[in-house]
Here is the input.
Amino acid sequence: MSPRFTVSGILPASRAVSANERARRDQLEERVVGLFDQFRDPILRYLSGFGLPLPDCEEVLQEVFLSLFQHLDRGKSQENIRGWLFRVAHNLALKRRYRTLQDIEVQVEAGAGEFAIDPAPNPEDQMVNNQTRQRLLAVVDALPELDRRCLFLRAEGLRYREIAEILNMSLGAVSISLARSLARIARSAER
Amino acid sequence: MNLMKYDEHLPDQQLLLDVEGELSPRDEKRVRAHLAGCWKCRARRQELENAITGFVRVYQRESETKLPPVAGPRALLKAQLAQLSATAANGYLGWFTFPRALAWTAALGGLLVLGLFLVRVMREPSRTPIVSIPNSTLTPGATLLVNRPAVCAQENIKNRIVPVALQRRVFEAYGIAGADPRAYEVDYLITPALGGADDIHNLWPHSYSATVWNARVKDALEDRLRDMVCEGSMDLAEAQREIAGNWIAAYKKYFHTDRPLSEHCNRCGE
Here is the structure.
């Protein structure tokens, strides 16, 4: 009779490790979901500036947080999670934009390109506010892409050093870019 | 970081670094000393602060209107995390011994290369989506600082040829880098005849296969708006806004029609 091998000797220990492992992963999942709650809105706002449709931005966002789970699961650096999240989101959005064929047939009837009207009660204020906003949006849209990225990241509260790391620029280049963009915005406000 | 000489005005970059609290203590002291005695630099610093305030207000408002509720995406993430976690817990590393891993990696790599090749070959001919109106995010329109007399004094109002490198960037921005360039004309959103700039934000790939709302129809609108501007019946800025907002709607409005007129579009009946 051929010998029979059983796993009874190792199974209990293996199950014990599994239970610990399960608990660790549950904690990790909770932590990632907590970070999602904290950073979802700022990252989604940042992603929406890439010209991707919103569903694509949401998909990129999911990828970002799944990558975060794997990153943390492998015990990698936890220093500056916010900067890490924005950097991964930035890179994934660039890939998505260049690799995915966008649905660029714009629905004419949907009134693309129109700005929402301010819900201000006074029609004159409404018009002035809307004009100011449109002028500012036009200035921002006309900025070079890197300048826009710097501006949006700064608006999301990232410091110069973090922006430099995310966009792979020098600190000096970040401050020059922001100064240039704000000077243009200031000029538009004078008009 | 080197600062300017004491008697020179501060550049925007230094003022901004001061506003942002990004200066070293030594530079901050020198900048503050300069600001204490220089009204011009103080006023400029205030302008930059106002620009930040103005931008942040608009940025927040624009973003608030765009963001969908978090509940759905949050639930989706939790489900995906549970799945990912289960896959990992089932020991994707346990059976993954080195020789087996090598064999699988080689096999999967081969399949991936083959798959990518097939996808590329099969998708290439269809990567020519019809574009009859630009993406307003990628192409909001950009203008030069010119006034009505300057625009109306132009003799040659034909659109300039867009350099090939810039055309390539437009295709990349629209995600159609692999499309057949012969299927599109890289067109100006705001024509140079109305003060439009040679800028990527003012260019888009207009499909030749858009048989109804094609480039020839848009040319007719451009001519009409320019005539109105030069006659004095429309502001230059208004004409630029009309054509940048939605050129098809503008055509319908100024030619009082729902479809292109036959003299502007000899293929519209197709």
